[in-house]
Amino acid sequence: xxxxxxVTVLAGGVGGARFTRGLLAxxxxxxxxxxxxxxxxxxxxxxxGDDMTLNxxxxxxxxxxxxxxxxxxxxxxQGWGRDDESRRVSGEIAAYGRGWDWFTLGDLDLxxxxxRTELLRDGATLSEATEYLCRRWKPAARLLPMSDQPVExxxxxxxxxxxxxxxxxxxxxxWWVRYRAHVPATEFVQRGLEQATAAPGVIEAILxxxxxxxxxxxxxxxxxxxxxxxxxRDAVRQTAAHVVGVSPIIGGAAVRGMADACLTVxxxxxxxxxxxxxxxxxxxxSAGLIDGWLVDETxxxxxxxxxxxxxxxxxVPLWMRDVxxxxxxxxxxxxLAFE
Length: 339
Ligand code: GDP
Ligand code: CA
What we know:
Elements: E1 6-11, H1 14-30, E2 41-46, E3 52-54, E4 57-59, H2 61-71, H3 88-95, H4 107-121, H5 126-137, E5 142-145, E6 152-157, E7 169-171, H6 172-178, E8 185-191, H7 202-207, E9 211-214, H8 223-228, H9 232-238, E10 242-246, E11 249-250, E12 253-254, H10 259-265, H11 272-279, E13 292-296, H12 303-308, E14 312-316, H13 323-338
Parallel strand pairs: 1-2, 1-9, 2-5, 9-10, 10-13, 13-14
Antiparallel strand pairs: 3-4, 6-7, 6-8, 11-12
Helix pairs in contact: 1-2, 1-13, 2-5, 4-5
Calcium ion binds next to helix 2.
């Protein structure tokens, strides 16, 4: 593995951020640069389909989760948002009858959104605004939004709920956070996708990588959204890099959150095997995306079935309990890539 120089991760929020933190810890150990960092360059391409404008501010939940997690500012208990957070400003906004009682923006977090919104209003692209914000947090990886154009994941609700009639399209975060994915959904729509292009550096980061990793992020509304940006899926298919994924499903359930609800909407079985087959094997007639797929130890019986489909699989512990455990997962993913 001495040739390892560049790794690219396609990430959503919490799952992608935690995995990448473990990956960086492993690389610092295994490929030290002598100054506490790693000589392996890591690029994280982040989903922006969950982005919203709230109270006039541009909020990018997944970019912020990755930036805070890699920069040491994350709330460990929540997995998203700032540590040592307060909510006074949200209370004031609510007192005016504005805002969303189901989506709270913390005071410290608002600082990020204000600066980002100012940069965008002054003409910066989202890539440029992200780079600017990262100068403060100094993540040991390059963070790229999947696209500089707005793409919004919406959910078509199958039945009427509150002010929304049956068949209405609502923002993904409203379905996810307000309704906890309990309202039946019939489809996901990614508005703006056709006009969107991959952000500068994204396609190159995939094509020039030695390893591309699909971390344990939501396969539908995180990784799936990134792959749907024109050009990105083809780049993953065509790259000379080894492409490996890590299952976000353990023992038939989403480890955290409600990823099963998303898989059900697109007709994919909630299992490590189901998601692996959904991504599909590269270099086969089915023209899938992955060479290798890590499943949890409890899903070891999926390994031969995946192998039959042309996917090299291996069963290892996949609980991101802490950074060392996650670093071992990342080491396993890299090992599988070069097997
Ligand atoms: P979000 O944008 O914040 O929802 O985060 P992601 O899309 O990046 O990741 C969410 C997914 O991470 C969830 O659907 C879980 O299936 C997965 N996940 C969370 N914690 C773990 C863990 O410890 N191990 C594994 N294998 N998957 C996890
Ligand atoms: Ca997300």
